[in-house]
Design a protein that fits this description.
- By secondary structure, the chain is an alpha+beta fold.
- The chain is built from 10 helices and 16 strands.
- An 8-stranded antiparallel beta sheet has the order 13-12-9-10-11-14-16-15, with helices on both faces.
Length: 398
């Protein structure tokens, strides 16, 4: 039985994520994603993020994520996409759309900075220089009070061999290129791990420096979602990170019976306010762990849309609508075409069990390695139930 009668309302509410007069132009150059460990297709797929959270403003989207079939699946989930949407197939089209919007007086917001010189500096909502400063792990002490940081040191990688480092620890890329998703991070239990990681970072060429960070034992780590504008910083929710191994995130879960602690929310708002005073505006977040002794530790800055932003924004409304208390992230590259994927998921979407906020038609986006890409979250009565249904839904899309 179909239970979806009205659109889901995000926790961003009427405030949204961007001020008036700003267009969302998320297509980026592949070079900007080099140190995220993502395929080249991400330069296209990133343009399909934040569906349902950019309503009422101009957007630039790849056609593969904005086909009638794609938008119908998202709408069936209860997410209203009411954008002034421009679509593209080739990068040059995206840049032409962006320059046209600039001529019309819009500023641009993006998940990752455009190529240097692509647009004039004043055309950006956030200066690329500030974006890089805030998203650099090296610069966390500029915005995070010291009591919420792990012990860390900055070392040069321009040596012939790896130095002896106290373990266990994490080695993380320094510099100002965007990093994330655990790609430019290595967990080291032994000196041999340090030496292997050292060779990896030297081959990666991400930076001339590395961050050596204390391996803080945590009982949980959450990805916090914020919205930052002229009026202040709003907390939108938090998704607990799931890991396949240390620093290797495999997904996220929101469990209403085990929410992110309120004291941790205060930490996130403090960090967000520090970034706001520096001039940042837009969707943002950070990774915060809770140590075994109850201490909050900020590990990574994410002053951009995150993989869990839409889950955190729509979870509360979706859970209330269906009577659920937990959700688990879903991201599948499926061999089913977009219509086949919709048919496989239809009854689960109609029951409120599944929410889809991105649906990519591989025929229209040849850069993706599958017939379709489906992204959203699966809901359950509790965490275990959400895990069970997540496994069921994954099989539906095989």
């Amino acid at each position: 039985m179909k239970i979806l009668e009205s659109p889901l309302v995000s926790t961003a509410g009427s405030h949204g994520f961007l001020p008036p007069g700003v267009a969302f132009a998320p297509r980026v150059d592949v070079a900007q994603l080099k140190f995220l460990g993502v395929p080249e297709s991400a330069a296209d797929t990133v343009s399909t993020t934040m569906m349902g959270l950019m309503n009422g403003r101009p957007t630039i989207r790849h056609k593969g994520g904005a086909t009638p079939d794609s938008l119908a699946m998202i709408a069936r989930s209860g997410i209203d996409v009411s954008e002034d949407m421009r679509t593209f197939s080739e990068p040059e089209e995206a840049y032409r759309h962006a320059k046209s919007l600039i001529r019309d007086g819009y500023k641009l917001a993006w998940p990752y900075p455009p190529q240097k010189g692509c647009y004039r500096e004043t055309a950006n909502l956030v200066a690329p220089r500030l974006w890089r400063k805030l998203n650099s792990k090296r610069n966390l002490p500029l915005i995070v009070p010291s009591e919420y940081l792990a012990e860390r040191a900055i070392i040069s990688i321009n040596t012939k061999s790896a130095p002896t480092i106290s373990t266990p620890c994490y080695l993380k890329a320094g510099g100002d290129m965007p990093t994330g998703m655990g790609y430019a991070v290595r967990y080291c239990e032994t000196q041999a791990d340090v030496e292997d990681a050292w060779e990896f970072f030297k081959s990666l060429g991400v930076s001339d420096e590395l961050i050596v960070e204390e391996a803080v034992p945590v009982i949980g780590c959450w990805c916090i979602s914020l919205s930052i504008d002229e009026t202040g910083v709003r907390y939108l929710g938090a998704a607990e990170q799931l890991f396949s191994s240390p620093a290797r995130q495999s997904g996220s879960v929101i469990d209403d019976d085990h929410p992110f602690p309120k004291e941790g929310v205060k930490v996130a708002l403090t960090v967000g306010e520090n970034a706001r005073t520096m001039g940042f505006r837009g969707p943002a977040g950070m990774d915060i762990g809770v140590s075994a002794d109850g201490r909050f530790v900020v590990f990574d800055p994410n002053f951009r849309p995150q993989g869990s932003t839409q889950q955190a924004s729509f979870h509360a409304a979706a859970a209330k609508r269906g009577g659920f208390r937990a959700s688990r992230s879903l991201n599948v590259n499926s061999d089913l075409d977009i219509r086949g994927a919709e048919r496989a998921l239809r009854r689960h979407i109609d029951s409120g069990r599944v929410v889809i906020f991105r649906a990519i038609d591989g025929r229209e986006m040849p850069s993706v390695p599958s017939a379709s890409v489906v992204t959203g979250f699966v809901l359950g009565a509790d965490r275990e139930d959400a895990d069970h249904w997540h496994a069921t839904i994954m099989k539906c899309l095989d």
